[in-house]
Specification:
This protein starts with a helix and ends with a helix. It is of the alpha/beta class. A five-stranded parallel beta sheet has the order 5-4-6-7-10. A three-stranded parallel beta sheet has the order 2-1-3, with helices on both faces. Strands 8-9 form a two-stranded antiparallel ribbon. Helix 1 runs parallel beside helix 9, helix 2 crosses helix 9 and helix 6 packs across helix 9. The chain contains nine helices and ten strands. The radius of gyration is 19 Å and the shape is globular.
Length: 283
C-alpha cells in the first residue's frame, strides 16, 4: 500500500502543532546539511524543504562541496547546534569518500536530532524511552502498518538488514510494548545463508538491506505483509529490496515508489515539532 495517505495524516497533525506553537510565539525550524553533489541526496533534501513549506515550518539549509574537509563539516554541524532558530536538523547521508558521517552524527546535539540517529537517541530507544526522537523510517513503517490495520502485536516479523538507519532501530521499535508494536522480531542479513527460511515463516517481512530485488515471491508466504524499506539506485531509477512480483503472493505490499519514503519525511517533521515543544517546555 502507498505511504502518501499515512504521510498526509501525520503532516496534518504536524501542521496543526506548528500553528499551535506559533500561537505561543514559537516558529518551528528544521535544518538540513548536504555534503557533496549526489543528485539523489539533493532530491531528498528538496522534498524535505517542500514538506516544511506545506506545513508552515521554517527550513534552513547548509550545502558543502564534495571537496569539504571534515573540519568544515563539523563547523556546519556546530552552527546548527548553536542556532536557536533551528529546532532540529538532519545530516544527509551518504557522504563523499574520505569524510566521516558517523563522527558528524555523534557531534550533532541529540536534542536537535531530526533523524533520530544520534547514539544517545538510539540508546534511549533501546531502553524503551518513549519521549526521545524516533528513527524516521522505522517510525514511518510502524505508522503504515497501523494505518492499513496490519496486525503486529504478537506476530512474527522478520527484518532483512541490520543497518543503523532501518534494521537495528526497527527491530527495537517493533519488539517493544508500544502502541501498534510488541511483536516477535528476527533480524537476518546478507551474511545469513538461509535467510529465506526465516522470511517464508514470517507474518511481516521488511526489506532493509539495500539490495535490489533481493526479496522475491518465493521468499514470502502467501498472505504475508511485505514492506520494501531498503532501496538501490540503478542509474536514475530507484529499485526496492522487494521485487514487484511479490505482490502476486503477499496479502499486503508497499509499491516500488511512493511506499515508505513519504512517511520518512513526515516523521522527520514530526521530530522537529517534538524538539520545538520540548525546548518550549524547558524554557
Amino acid at each position: 500500500m502507498h505511504g502518501a495517505p499515512v504521510a498526509d495524516a501525520v503532516l496534518a497533525r504536524v501542521a496543526d502543532d506548528v500553528a499551535k506553537l506559533a500561537a505561543d510565539g514559537v516558529e518551528v525550524g528544521l535544518g538540513t546539511i548536504l555534503v557533496g553533489d549526489d543528485p539523489a541526496s539533493a532530491g531528498y533534501i528538496a522534498k524535505k524543504h517542500d514538506a516544511c513549506a506545506a506545513v508552515g515550518m521554517r527550513s534552513f539549509h547548509q550545502e558543502l562541496p564534495s571537496t569539504a574537509t571534515q573540519d568544515e563539516v563539523m563547523a556546519a554541524v556546530a552552527a546548527f547546534n548553536g542556532d536557536p532558530a533551528v529546532d532540529a536538523f538532519l545530516i544527509q547521508n551518504p557522504f563523499p569518500l574520505g569524510l566521516d558521517y558517523n563522527a558528524a552524527i555523534a557531534f550533532l546535539d541529540p536534542a536537535k536530532d531530526a533523524d533520530g540517529l544520534h547514539p544517545t537517541n538510539l540508546g534511549l530507544l533501546a531502553l524503551g524511552v518513549t519521549d526521545a526522537p524516533l528513527a524516521c523510517t522505522p517510525a514511518g513503517i510502524l505508522a503504515m502498518l497501523a494505518h492499513y490495520e496490519v496486525p503486529v502485536e504478537g506476530r512474527n516479523v522478520v527484518i532483512v538488514g541490520r543497518g543503523p538507519t532501518i534494521g537495528r532501530p526497527l527491530s527495537l521499535l517493533l519488539s517493544q510494548k508500544r502502541a501498534g508494536a510488541n511483536a516477535a522480531v528476527t533480524v537476518v542479513h546478507t551474511g545469513v545463508a538461509n535467510w529465506a527460511d526465516y522470511t517464508r515463516r514470517a507474518d511481516i517481512v521488511v526489506g532493509g538491506a539495500g539490495v535490489a530485488n533481493m526479496i522475491g515471491p518465493d521468499h514470502v508466504r502467501p498472505g504475508a505483509a511485505v514492506v520494501g524499506a531498503g532501496i538501490t539506485w540503478e542509474g536514475r531509477r530507484v529499485v526496492s529490496d522487494v521485487d514487484e512480483s511479490v505482490g502476486e503472493v503477499a496479502g499486503w505490499v508497499t509499491p516500488r515508489r511512493g511506499g515508505v519514503g513519504p512517511t520518512t519525511v513526515a516523521m522527520l517533521l514530526s521530530n522537529a515539532v517534538r524538539a520545538a515543544r520540548a525546548k518550549l517546555e524547558a524554557s
